[in-house]
């Protein structure tokens, strides 16, 4: 039985029209005569979606009891018994009621597919396992229902149901997604424009990756090796040489010319496992590539041009960036070089040969270490000097041996010397053996004259074979030693990387692992003072260096106080104490030093971020203080002064009632002024670091009535909708009351008389949100930030009532308590002020599909 096909409609968020689209496809198939049934579709009360069900047969759902409540789920057995050609199963990531045959609906779908039934289904991008954590960061909501990515990737078709954030919010405002009582909360929480934009980008990127996979699979199945320029991909080849940084930056500029282009760096390592490139250079270049948004890759190969082109074609690269050859002109006569060869074989891939400072200067010859130990070389020379004469004496005592036999025995002796001591002892043995063969065993005897041409050829072949064998033995020994060294280096790098990953602080972990690996007494990272940079005489002074990190006993304080100093850049040097390292070890230490510099920069960035936070808080407090002085001091001072001036006036005679009213006005104004001054003093003390905000858990159901009471009779018409189970907010009660009074007074001032403001509250992503909604004229979005500037009252030129709207103060106080105030457009017209404060306890609710 053929397996059924799965078609998935992918959306960025609830309400984009996935279920509507899947039902449209079901209707089209049914109209063509296909046997289609509805296994499970959730309309969420949306009339347009319900209308699309039409007359398609719906398999009755199965009712299940769970914890005293009834739930309905898809009846999997009924659908299997019905055996339609196509089944519509909505919400692929849905979790089934406990007691069902499968925990997840996607497992039900797998069983339908195994039965040969095609399935049409839907899923939102936030329910994909691979992006679940990213969605939680964006929206503040952790999705509990997820589906493995491989299930969706395995679908024969994935169709994106797309809608712009603005269009989706309009659908929400028109009541096409949620019930009216949930619209305001949804628009202010999950359905923010930023959230929807980020989710839409996630869906597009995820689908683009699947399309890339399908394209690669198709090209592989069809045997297509040519590059298809569906997306610009720039590959830069790195040799581990000093020109790598120039090539990377050049390739990054090439990639930046095309939006969405990929940057990939590749290094071709020798397939025999021997070290060729400088690991320190490669480590620094890898960091540079990743900092520019690219990826680093390493492939094995003996033929570098072929390996580069195989990699480039495998990733569907469109451009390849290579460095001009460092080989000298004389060397290029005998071999064209990697760049020229790659260009000739590149086909449709554009190749950029980038010049650099090292081009054409030749490769600096590295010191070649001896293949064998000094002891073995001495043993080889001893065998050559003593063994060849002893072999001659032995052969003289043996009768009836021909010259051929003598040559073979001498050749065996040379091979033995080569195995023991390498090429130079073998060369001495070969030359000495040829002279002994000529003198004692080649007619005429005891002369260096060779009478027969055959004997001359035999001696020449003997010398040539002896030298060739000794050279092969020496190269094999050298390669064995290099391979062992490379394996040890790789093991060391892996150990250091593991130590860094396991450590809570990367830099100390890296230095400690380095010290243990090479058996050092201490390791320090030193930094040169800024005034000493570029001044060698200052760099030699002890006080010019600062120890930024160290491990071990008596760490060095200057580069001269250690056995080995490895400069990372002009100012940072890693110094090692305990023993002097070999040249081969230094290359590995340079790679570690480059990583240490990266870890140091990361630590400093974290410290700067931690330092910036209290400075930003202090700046917010200072701004709030100045705004409060300029705004809110005026009104109570003016009222109190006017009342007192009137009472002291001799021009007007006030009766008892008027006198009481003026005294009451003065008293209220002075009380308000006293409260304001007290708050400002508290804020100034807090800014000076001598007073902390008294943050407590306070319920908005308690704070809002206090603010309304302070506003007096004008606030009697304000409607409130604060859930009983709303978590408490973390705030200072006095400051919170001032914030609420200001934003509610602002809403009252601009609300029509027949449409008073409404106050709603909800919890979202560890925050408590209070929304003050008015139906007034509203404010254009491009002027939202202006209302928070001091002395700004948009559309209000009347200064008789004072300047004190206090929105600048309110935002400053909210931010000082760890919250925010942001304006939003009220659906249908008006302005909504959203106050967000940290929740004393987290309450998270997923959006309804």
TrEMBL record:
Asked whether the UniProt record includes Plastid among its keywords, one would answer no
Q: Which UniProt keywords apply?
A: ATP-binding, Kinase, Membrane, Nucleotide-binding, Phosphoprotein, Transferase, Transmembrane, Transmembrane helix, Two-component regulatory system
Q: Which domain of life is it from?
A: Bacteria
> Could you tell me which PROSITE patterns the record lists for this protein?
HIS_KIN
Give the Gene3D superfamilies listed for this entry.
1.10.287.130, Backbone structure of the membrane domain of e. Coli histidine kinase receptor kdpd, Histidine kinase-like ATPase, C-terminal domain, HUPs, P-loop containing nucleotide triphosphate hydrolases
List the molecular function annotations (GO) for this entry: ATP binding; phosphorelay sensor kinase activity
Q: Name one GO cellular component term.
A: cytoplasm
- What's the Enzyme Commission number for this chain? 2.7.13.3
Q: Where is the signal peptide?
A: none
Q: Which SUPFAM superfamilies match?
A: Adenine nucleotide alpha hydrolases-like, ATPase domain of HSP90 chaperone/DNA topoisomerase II/histidine kinase, Homodimeric domain of signal transducing histidine kinase
In this protein, which residues make up the domain named Histidine kinase? 628-841
Cross-referenced PANTHER family, in alphabetical order?
Answer: SENSOR PROTEIN KDPD
What's the protein called, per UniProt?
histidine kinase
Native species of this protein? Micromonospora arborensis
């Amino acid at each position: 039985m053929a397996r059924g096909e799965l078609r998935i409609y992918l959306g960025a968020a609830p309400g984009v029209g996935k279920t509507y689209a899947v039902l449209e496809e079901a209707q089209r198939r049914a109209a063509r005569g296909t046997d289609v049934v509805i296994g499970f579709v959730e309309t969420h009360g949306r009339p347009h979606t319900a209308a699309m069900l039409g007359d398609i047969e719906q398999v009755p759902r199965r009712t299940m009891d769970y914890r005293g409540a009834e739930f309905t789920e898809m009846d999997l057995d009924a659908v299997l018994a019905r055996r339609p050609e196509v089944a519509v199963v909505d919400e692929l990531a849905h979790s089934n009621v406990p007691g069902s045959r499968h925990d997840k609906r996607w497992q039900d779908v797998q069983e339908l597919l195994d039965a040969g039934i095609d399935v049409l289904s839907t899923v939102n991008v936030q329910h994909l396992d691979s992006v679940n954590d990213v969605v939680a960061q964006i929206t503040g909501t952790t999705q509990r229902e997820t589906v493995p990515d491989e299930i969706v990737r395995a679908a024969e078709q994935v169709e994106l149901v797309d809608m712009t954030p603005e269009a989706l919010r309009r659908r929400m405002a028109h009541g096409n997604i949620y019930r009216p009582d949930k619209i305001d909360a949804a628009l202010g929480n999950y359905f923010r424009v930023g959230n929807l934009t980020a989710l839409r980008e996630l869906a597009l990127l995820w689908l683009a990756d699947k399309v890339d996979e399908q394209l690669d699979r198709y090209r592989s199945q069809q045997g297509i090796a040519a590059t298809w320029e569906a997306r610009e991909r720039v590959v830069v080849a790195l040799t581990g040489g000093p020109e790598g940084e120039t090539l990377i930056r050049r390739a990054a500029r090439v990639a930046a010319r095309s939006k969405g282009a990929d940057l990939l760096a590749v290094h071709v390592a020798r397939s025999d496992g021997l070290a060729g490139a400088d690991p320190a250079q490669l480590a620094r270049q890898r960091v540079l590539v990743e900092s520019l948004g690219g990826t680093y890759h390493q492939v094995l190969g003996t033929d570098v041009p072929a390996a580069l082109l195989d990699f480039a074609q495998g990733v569907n690269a469109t451009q390849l960036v290579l460095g001009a050859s460092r080989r000298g002109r004389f060397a290029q006569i005998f071999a064209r070089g990697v760049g020229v060869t790659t260009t000739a074989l590149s086909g449709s891939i554009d190749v950029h040969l980038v010049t650099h400072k090292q081009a054409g200067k030749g490769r600096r010859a590295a010191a070649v270490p001896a293949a064998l130990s000094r002891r073995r070389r001495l043993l080889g020379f001893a065998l050559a000097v003593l063994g060849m004469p002893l072999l001659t004496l032995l052969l003289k005592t043996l009768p009836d041996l021909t010259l051929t036999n003598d040559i073979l025995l001498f050749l065996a002796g040379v091979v033995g010397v080569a195995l023991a001591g390498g090429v130079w002892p073998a060369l001495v043995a070969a030359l000495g053996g040829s002279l002994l063969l000529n003198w004692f065993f080649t007619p005429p005897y005891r002369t260096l004259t060779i009478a027969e041409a055959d004997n001359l050829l035999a001696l020449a072949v003997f010398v040539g074979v002896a030298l060739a064998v000794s050279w092969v033995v020496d190269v094999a020994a050298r390669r064995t030693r290099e391979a062992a060294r490379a394996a040890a280096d790789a093991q060391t790098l892996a150990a250091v990387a593991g130590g860094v990953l396991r450590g809570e602080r990367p830099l100390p972990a890296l230095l400690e692992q380095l010290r243990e690996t090479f058996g050092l007494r201490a390791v320090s990272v030193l930094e040169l003072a800024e005034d000493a940079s570029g001044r060698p005489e200052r760099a030699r002074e002890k006080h010019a260096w600062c120890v930024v990190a160290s491990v071990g006993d008596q760490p060095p304080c200057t580069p001269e106080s250690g056995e080995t100093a490895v400069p990372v850049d002009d100012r940072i040097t890693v110094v090692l104490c305990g023993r002097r390292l070999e040249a081969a070890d230094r290359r590995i230490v340079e790679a570690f030093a480059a990583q240490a510099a990266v870890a140091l920069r990361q630590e400093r960035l974290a410290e700067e971020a931690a330092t910036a936070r209290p400075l930003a808080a202090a700046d917010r407090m200072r701004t709030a203080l100045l705004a409060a002085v300029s705004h809110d001091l005026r009104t109570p001072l003016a009222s109190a002064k006017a009342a007192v001036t009137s009472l002291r006036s001799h021009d007007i005679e006030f009766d008892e009632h008027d006198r009481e009213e003026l005294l009451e006005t003065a008293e209220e104004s002075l009380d308000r002024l006293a409260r304001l001054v007290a708050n400002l003093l508290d804020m100034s003390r807090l800014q000076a670091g001598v007073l902390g905000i008294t943050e407590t858990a306070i319920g908005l159901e308690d704070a809002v009535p206090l603010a309304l009471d302070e506003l007096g009779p004008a606030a009697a018409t304000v409607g409130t909708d604060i859930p009983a189970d709303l978590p408490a907010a973390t705030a200072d009660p006095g400051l919170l009351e001032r914030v609420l009074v200001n934003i509610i007074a602002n809403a009252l001032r601009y609300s029509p008389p027949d449409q008073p403001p409404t106050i709603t509250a909800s919890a979202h992503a560890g925050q408590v949100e209070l929304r003050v909604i008015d139906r007034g004229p509203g404010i254009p979005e491009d002027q939202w930030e202006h209302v928070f500037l001091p002395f700004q009252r948009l559309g209000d030129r009347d200064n008789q009532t004072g300047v004190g709207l206090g929105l600048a103060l309110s935002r400053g106080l909210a931010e000082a308590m760890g919250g925010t105030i942001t304006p939003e457009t009220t659906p249908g017209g008006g302005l909504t002020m959203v106050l967000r404060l940290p929740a004393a306890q987290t309450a998270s609710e997923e959006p309804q599909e």
